[in-house]
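Worked example 2:
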Amino acid sequence: MSQNMKLLLGLAAFVLLLVGAVAAYNALSDRVPEPEWTQTQTQPQIDAVWNGTDFTVTDEEGKDVKLSDLGGKPVVLNFWASWCPPCRDEMPEFDKAYKELGGEVQFMMVSLTGSNGETVATASKFVADQGYGFPVYFDTKGQAAIAYGIRNIPATYFIDGNGKVVSSQVGSLSETALRRGIAGLR
């Protein structure tokens, strides 16, 4: 058998294998439902925030604040940094929601200070320059990031008034996704 014939047969076998793989994928993918964004996929489910997985951050005045201090009302917990473009992109949506719902829902916007040069000063300056009104907290000791296993930002958790994580998303939220997450808390 010539070299060209062997190459042609090998190529034909590869194409058949590829076509079979695509057919199998299409046949099997219909049986597996797509996960919804509201289900925690990449982060561990944290069922007892107030009773177990608590953390302490500092507020803009340097006072310690625990996540459990916000108990009783739903909480939108967002991890971000001023150097993170997707974080910056979603901030206007959070500010708009905070201005509309700040009385009904707690917003805990946690800056990951200490990562990639993020400091309390750089985060505070970013928020002030943009004119955002939501409360900002600083994870100066990394407790919050460790408690929630944060590896990528932005990351947002929607926590009900009993401290249970109802949903979460890693990555920038659109206004629609943010509103859907908040609606899931009611």
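Strands lie at 56-58, 64-66, 75-80, 106-111, 136-138, 155-159, 165-170. The domain at 56-183 is CATH 3.40.30.10 (Glutaredoxin).
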